[in-house]
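Schema walk-through. Below, the input block comes first and the output block second. Nothing else is stored per chain. Lengths vary across the set, and this one has 127 residues.
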Amino acid sequence: MSCPHASESESESEDSGGRSPRQAQGLLLRRAIEVGSIPYIGKEANRMEDAEAGTVHDLDEVLTEYKDPKRDTWVTEVLPRLRITPVQDLVETTGLSRREIFRIRAGNATPRPDAKRALLEWAALAI
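--- output ---
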């Protein structure tokens, strides 16, 4: 009796040199992964049978995604970077006033859409 899965590759494994299991010999280690985001979703229970049957053509009809404010990119990446950057550098690169930058950094103000766009562009360049 033969095992049908004996020669299948396991994509979640790698050897110490990073080679795939087909080329590897010896002990295989778990492949390291990096999580981009963890979405919170809700499902409309009344329509899940329709989705499984293929009668729903738009997944948004039966799936709702909820944003966690603690995991928002603004809170986790942009604000910490704003807080360690000298204010004068932010004034020069974004065109915002010192007062506005101080209020945003302190969390006392939500930036206007144009100001938030400028700060997000700055953060993308600062990475």
